[in-house]
Design a protein that fits this description.
mainly alpha, about 75% helix, single chain, globular, 9 helices
Amino acid sequence: MRNIIKCCLTALCFCVALLTPGSSKAQNWDIDLLKQINPSQPGSSVWKGFSSTAKPISVGLPAVMLATAMLNKDSLLKTRSLEILGSVVLTTVATEAIKIVVNRERPYRKYPLEVFPNDASENGKSMPSAHVSLAFATATSLSLVYHKWYVTVPAFVWASGVGYSRLYLGEHYPSDVIAGAAVGIAGAYANRWLQKKLWPDHKKRLIPR
């Protein structure tokens, strides 16, 4: 678990390092790759769909699971839902804090004649992508609480689709997406570690009876 968190933090630091004045070549790679993915009229309903599901699924899934668990008095489902919800909350806080510290402008604002956004009304800072961090936090948490390939694979396919959609729609740089994935994965593992510290029997409560 610690190694995974370290790898994610390393990836995040690498992405932030791209913003330093002496890394112009890396910054060129960032915008050049984005321009190859982002079309002049990003109107694909598929990628708009992926992008629009990130926040509703990340918040709605654990909420529905928790409500179902409370109605059916299902302690296992309740524990799983709270872990996923904890990951989402922790990742949201971390994402917003990093956005404030890094203070990166959206690509379509810095390159208005080269990047074509699907929605230019998004005024939030660019790094890391909140859509991507939430999607990967949710996917990682699902993999941690279920350990089933038929849950893990679709979850990460969806999260990856969200990441690509943010590029296709011109909302983020590639490094924003990488940073978002790193924050989401790290957030899920950090939440698992925190829950184990707060509730020593947390792992036992995730075992079906």
